Request: fold
Amino acid sequence: MSATTLAISDMHCSACVGKVERLLRSHSWIEAFMVNPFSRRVYLTHDDRHDPLLLLKELEDLGFQPTLIEQRTEADESYRSRELKRIGVAGVCAMQVMMASVAVYFGDAWGMDDGIRQLLAWASLLLCVPLVGYCAQPFFAGALRALRRGVSMDVPIALAIVVAFAVSVQHTVAGAGALYFDSVGMFVFLLLLARFYDARLRRVLSAEDRLQQLLPQTVYRMTAAGPEEADAAAVQIGDTLWVPEGAIVPADGELKADGALLDESVLSGEADWVRKSRGAPVYAGTHNRGAGFEMQALAVPRDSRAAEIQTLSARISLTKAPLARLADRLARIFVPTILGLAAVTYLLHRFAVGGLPTEDALSAALAVLIVSCPCALALAIPAATAAALIRARRLGILLADSGLLETLPTIRQVLLDKTGTVLAPDLALTRVVTWAGWSADSVYALASALQRHSSHPIAAAFRAPALPRSVAVSPQQSWDPVADWTLGQIEAVAGAGLSAVLKFDGWVADVRLGSAQHCGIDPGQQADSAQTVFLCLDGDLLAAFELRSELRPDAALAVDRLRSGGRSLMILSGDSRAACQRVGSELGIKALDSLSPEQKRELLLDLRQAEGPVMFVGDGINDALAFAEADVSVATLETSDYVQANADAVLLSSRLETLPDLFALGAAVQRVIRQNLGWAFGYNVILIPLAMLGYVSPWLAAVGMASSSLLVMANASRLLRFDPAPTAAGATGATDLEVC
Reply:
């Protein structure tokens, strides 16, 4: 199967979406698709044997102008340039027409010569010609394309412009009757302006383009002659790369310099810059905020963590929340309904008992056509959802299902795995025991030098340049017999440890680091432990390093925020009772131990039946059964690609506090959606009847329609500035939105 993305810049309303979806459903080789009216994109997964380019011709036959997503940047620039020209011409002409109309209005009140009135009418007609003949062409073209198979919002727009202009021309030639040139000018100008700023807001709310631009196109590869520029696609595993100051890291790898300062916010959502030491991992897509440095590529760019995030985020493209589907169905019947209401309005005003003059009936019908705005209804949910997805990613959460935003407010139970979830995935060095009089600093320096050659997770505990002061030392020794030494013939033994030849002060010795068996220690004298690493020199024990999994630094705060939001928490683990009780007591929550994957699943099902929807947070393949049954499943950053691919959300940083942030964001999204839907329904329910009764003039209707969808988009954009900081807002954990 393959994935393809198409851009349809002239897909303006839900009627357009319906035509595109009907075409896609007619092809059995398309496995899944999503038509997004907000981003104006079509996402497909399809059989490799069929060329998706054939869809471009079929979409053109439907009246659209589609492009492949790779071609969209150039097409967007051309589109923006054309629209700015149209807006400029429309603004100048509409302003002049309005000035002539104002003069006529004042002339009606104070008296005006018929010759001057007629001159102003002809001037308005001439100024309206470029408005209708040039500026309004996108609406006419869209209406003509739409009429091939159904209708779209461009149909009532084009109809209103043509009728108002034609009637005004007729009355100008006849020298009598109402003129609508000012309404035509304002309508075209405001609608063009609204669509232009609507497109600007869509680009601001679009995360996909930013994800595609995470990685640079060129890199600097180190050679004997120094850094040489090369294509990023040519990077191979093992290449030494140079990352200049201010540049983007091109691939995942290992730092070869003594230090580096990186901004990883684009991946993790963490605002603070991160200092890295030699041997630390660096990730593609992050920014170098310090001096230039060398790194070794450990993966090609297409296999980087940034690329994985982009792949996971693409899953959101094929999902749509239930509430959004309902809004789409309502919006699709809106345009035909409006056309019918406009016709009924004209007939009632013209031919009912005590019928009004033709121009008054026509004015009311035009106002109905102009004032209606299904765009606000169609965009109410997609705009809020898109903004929330971007804000979530900036907070360090990648959502793979937009329906999750509707489910979150219903969650009252959060089940947590222990190892790798509430506990940090890396082991921390907690105690050093030394023998033979060696100092703790000395044995740590030797162990750290050996661990630089290991990719085992335990090696991460020895990455600090010196022994951390927080580590307990027993007994305290000060002798430093290996102040000047070198290591050679370093060898990693899978599942056991490392060995090397140590040279110092003219001596040569065999040094080993790892398990008791690897170091040749008598198990009867020294118990072996999976969390104890031994260091031996020529078979003599020098040191034992005790390691322990600690709570994530923000685990307690995350638990407190979740509990204060009215949610119950529980730890489910397959670990021993003692280990689980220790963690549970530190966090103040119940911890169940010795659970198999099947038992976790059964417990989750029982809790859901008894208390409602459940969220499960885990990190391992053994959590896959619980992931499948949970209403919301969340994977931690350090878990496998398989687990992440099957989760509803992925934490992009090591912070657990992003979990309560996610709940707070979910509550905020629901508020914005309710506001948007309330505005969209309220606007149409109030203004359409007023227009039918003749209380809304065409020019006022133009202002209302042009502003309606912009208000929805602007309200949704507030989510980009949403602050999930904990407050005493109540049980939902909601916080106020910060207005842009």
